[in-house]
Amino acid sequence: MRKPIIAGNWKMNKTLAEAKEFTLAVKDAIPSKDVVDSVIGSPALFLAPMNCKRKDSELQLAAQNCFWENEGAYTGETSPAALADMGIEYVIIGHSERREYFHETDEEINKKAKAIFANGMTPILCCGETLETYEAGKTAEWIEGQITADLKDLSAEQVSSMVIAYEPIWAIGTGKSADANIADEICGVVRKTVEKLYGNEVAEKVRIQYGGSVKPENIAEYMAKENVDGALVGGASLQPDSFLALLSAVK
Ligand code: PEP
User: Fold this and answer.
1) What is known about its subunit structure (predicted)?
2) By residue range, what is the domain housing residue 91?
3) N or C: which terminus of the chain has fewer CB atoms within 10 Å of its end residue's CB?
4) Residue 95 among the catalytic residues
């Protein structure tokens, strides 16, 4: 039985005051980690203050990106070692916005995954296809290609413990969520790809999220599906009430 994981991705939103206010508003209402992993991926700037404010809470934190080296002359980058030292649990990597606007490649994403594991954190690896690929009926082969490249040389133990988010690009921030059956089918493609690379035991353990216009009103439809173990949520994770409502739907 895989534990559900609901992760908010705030992207480049909120001020420091708003991030602190959110943390204080939700911290005592987060369900037990024994039941669901509840994660907020905030801008890197707010991780340290949110880390202080979430003290004694079940709320977990994610960075939205990091570099693959721990230190050095890499102006503007975020060190995975520094994130781990602060107690940050997860790092989101390979989000389609980073692939598109910052030209991140599968090779770079793979190096980041290795650095995140080396520092004892868990990657949330995003994959997903464009509308063009979807309409051409090539989603499965696209996803298989991304996952195979992004997981290169990771161990079975690492892949068992990680999170993979299937996020069709055409459903992100558009309000046009994928049908729950399609989400289940493509999350199943992710699982089959992991099975092909690492075997059945690993494929049964890896947690797979759906992401793309998930909200409190539709999350239950996705969570009811066999291959969907959670959600990666942008817009609906920004407000305390909405984030808590997402968690309530799964606990
Ligand atoms: C995301 O940011 O990964 C995302 C899925 O956004 P939204 O929920 O707003 O579509």
Assistant:
1) Homodimer.
2) 5-249
3) N
4) yes
Give residues with Cβ within 8 angstroms of 52, minimum separation 6: none
Ligand 1 atom with minimal separation from the 11 CA: 2
Contacts within 8 Å (CB) and 24+ apart, 84-89: 84/119, 84/120, 84/121, 86/47, 86/48, 86/51, 87/51, 87/61, 88/47, 88/51, 88/61, 88/62, 88/63, 88/121, 89/39, 89/60, 89/61, 89/62, 89/121, 89/122
Ligand 1 centre to CA of 251 (Å) is 21
Residues annotated within the binding site for substrate are 9-11, 173, 213, 234-235
Domain CATH code at residue 54: 3.20.20.70
pLDDT digit string, tens, across residues 62-119: 999 999 999 999 999 999 999 999 999 999 999 999 999 999 999 999 999 999 999 9
**Binding site membership of 211 for ligand 1 (Cβ less than 6 Å):** yes
Q: Which residues of the chain have pLDDT under 70?
A: 251
The model's pTM: 0.97
- Nearest alpha carbon to residue 243 among 222, 214, 207: 214
